[in-house]
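User: Sequence recovery, please. Input:
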């Protein structure tokens, strides 16, 4: 009888990609993936530690799962929270038997066997050689593939837990990334998203990110290449040229800004100034007119003055992002921010108010930009059924979501659509016929 495994994933795309590797490893050991925890022999909660509320959700979820699990099922925690807390998780939750960090997934089958025999284990050593090259990822997304190209992070932004949970930066070899791209194309997928914490600092000892973009972009059958997330400091002219000159690389960059104030960026140890960020945006836009640009912004980092926050708002207005993920600062144990003076902490009420202002600004700009695009025609990839209504969710090259009416048989196809409406954030569109000359009437 085959055993079943369910993995519930929180957090970023790197975690989604890791879950595919875990499923791959476990499938090779005879496990069958299932869609829910009920009845599963193994349940893994694949966690995020980036902000405190992400961890609170997981703790709440573990409590719920404890009730749903079938007797004898193995419950494990993987991902960044597992790495961060290690054996402490075994102490706080007595039902959890396994705590496995991102570099130890290869050991899952053995660790699960041990847990079935009653063991409780934490495996959180970093392994700088581990790229899971021989593991065949079990992909669930039907039309696009996430491909990890770099693990870990060598920046040490003062708010960020990632260098602690993911370890130092290391890149996969270019040839391996190209091989995996060829494999996913052979499976019928036409879009890849290259993943790394600071993906454009990719370097495998011989090749940089520019080489990687050109090599992946040239794989036969690939129609779209994306990547996330780059760091503004690693946008060399070579990388920008590779992006602009490789037709399959999509015209979208997610460029985390975090703050628009040079003094704040310095406290965050982002290693660029407001001007350098703007310069990066200008170089990208000059190379790729019509580039979609999105970002991440944190409000309420320690010491944030009214002027610094005003600089962030002003930069948002100046750049006019297509969209932005906005976050309230969350203090993470072990990060350099914890050593900042206590009087620098920003009261919650101030953070809340700034957050609301920022969000309204971001949304207002996105709405204006999107309204200005109604009537435009563009190529979209049909990704999946939309959550609501009988619509299909499609994606443009510049990363706009477009909802289109049509049969599910269209999933995986490319359509030309005309943008007919927008909520301010997403679009509705109508497929347009590629114009054929009409036959002459009699
Ligand atoms: N608090 C709030 N937001 C954070 N991010 C990273 N660490 C924190 C933190 N401690 C945000 C950054 C990053 C995104 C993935 O999460 O904006 O780009
Ligand atoms: Fe965190 Fe900074 Fe590394 Fe991004 S670059 S993962 S924000 S430390």
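Assistant: Recovered sequence (442 residues):
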């Amino acid at each position: 009888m085959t055993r079943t495994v369910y993995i519930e994933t929180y957090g970023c795309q790197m975690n989604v990609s890791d879950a595919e590797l875990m499923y791959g490893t476990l499938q090779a050991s005879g496990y069958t993936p299932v869609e829910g925890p009920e009845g599963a022999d193994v349940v893994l909660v694949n966690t995020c530690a980036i902000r405190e509320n992400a961890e609170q959700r997981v703790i709440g979820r573990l409590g719920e799962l404890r009730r749903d699990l079938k007797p004898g099922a193995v419950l494990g925690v993987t991902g960044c929270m597992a790495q961060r807390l290690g054996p402490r998780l075994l102490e706080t939750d007595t039902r959890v038997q396994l705590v496995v960090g991102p570099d130890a997934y290869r050991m899952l089958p053995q660790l699960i066997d041990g847990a079935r025999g009653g063991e409780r284990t934490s495996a959180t050593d970093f392994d700088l050689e581990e790229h899971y090259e021989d593991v065949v990822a079990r992909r669930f997304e039907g039309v696009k593939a996430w491909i990890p190209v770099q693990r870990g992070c060598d920046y040490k932004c003062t708010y960020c837990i990632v260098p602690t949970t993911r370890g130092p930066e290391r890149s996969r070899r270019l040839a391996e990334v190209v091989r995996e791209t060829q494999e996913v194309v052979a499976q019928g997928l036409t879009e890849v998203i290259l993943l790394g914490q600071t993906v454009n600092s990719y370097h495998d000892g011989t090749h940089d990110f520019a080489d990687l973009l050109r090599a992946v972009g040239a794989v036969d059958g690939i129609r779209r290449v994306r990547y996330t997330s780059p760091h503004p400091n690693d946008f060399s002219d070579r990388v920008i040229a590779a992006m602009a000159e490789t037709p399959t690389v999509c015209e979208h960059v997610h460029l985390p800004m975090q703050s628009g104030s040079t003094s704040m960026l310095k406290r965050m140890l982002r290693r660029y100034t407001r001007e350098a960020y703007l310069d990066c945006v200008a170089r990208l836009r000059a190379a790729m007119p019509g580039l979609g640009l999105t970002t991440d912004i944190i409000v309420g980092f320690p010491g944030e003055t009214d002027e610094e926050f005003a600089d962030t708002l002003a930069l948002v207005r100046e750049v006019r992002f297509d969209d932005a993920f906005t976050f309230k600062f969350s203090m993470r144990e072990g990060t350099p921010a914890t050593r900042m003076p206590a009087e620098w902490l920003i009261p919650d009420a101030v953070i809340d108010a700034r957050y609301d202002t920022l969000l309204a600004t971001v949304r207002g700009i996105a709405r204006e930009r999107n309204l200005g695009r109604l009537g435009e025609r563009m190529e979209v990839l049909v990704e999946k059924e939309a959550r609501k209504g009988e619509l299909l969710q499609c994606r443009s090259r510049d990363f706009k979501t477009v909802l289109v009416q049509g049969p599910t048989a269209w999933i995986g196809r490319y359509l030309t659509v005309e943008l007919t409406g927008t909520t301010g954030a997403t679009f509705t569109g109508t497929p347009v016929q590629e114009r054929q000359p009409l036959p002459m009437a009699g």
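The chain has a mean pLDDT of 95.
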